[in-house]
Amino acid sequence: MLKEMGFAMIGGVPIVRDVASSIGGFSGGGIYGGIIDGYARIFEQAAQGEADLAFWKALSAGAGAATGFPSTLTNRALDFAAGEATAAEFLMGRSPLTR
Predict the structure, then answer these.
(1) How buried is residue 54: exposed, middle or buried, by Cβ count under 10 Å (0-12/13-18/19+)?
(2) Which residue of 2, 32, 57, 64 has the fewest C-beta atoms within 10 A of its own C-beta?
(3) Is residue 97 a part of any domain in this protein?
(4) Spatial contact of 60 and 71, defined as CB atoms under 8 Å apart
(5) Residue 92 CA to chain centroid, in angstroms?
(6) 39 lies in a domain?
């Protein structure tokens, strides 16, 4: 009940409302919703307390959205370092036909 009251209280503040709903499992649509979901993934992964591949990818995507840093290359390097991608996939990306 307290959680619902808290969400009702922050319902009028646009950015806070969207981040809270995204952390709660509701995703937004469009570019704005995608950016908010990306930042919410950082908090979700940090709450798990593990520095796994998903955490580093979420952090890379958040930094890419904030700074314009090419997070795709960073994610490819993380996949390659974790052994989930070959050298060809690291250099050229994964083939959409083999996913």
Answers:
(1) middle
(2) 2
(3) no
(4) yes
(5) 22
(6) yes
Q: 28 in helix, strand or coil?
A: coil
Q: What's the domain range around 19?
A: 2-92
* Overall average pLDDT of the 7-23 stretch: 72
DSSP 93: -
Res. 44 pLDDT band, cuts 50 70 90: confident
pLDDT exceeds cutoff 80 at 87: yes
Phi, psi (5° rounding) for residue 24? -75, -5
At 99 the pLDDT is 65
Instruction: Write down the pLDDT at residue 56.
Output: 92
CA 2, chain centre distance (Å): 27
Domain count, the chain: 1
Answer yes or no: are the C-beta atoms of 50 and 35 closer than 8 Å.
no
Residues 65, 99: Cα–Cα separation, whole Å: 25
DSSP category for residue 69: -
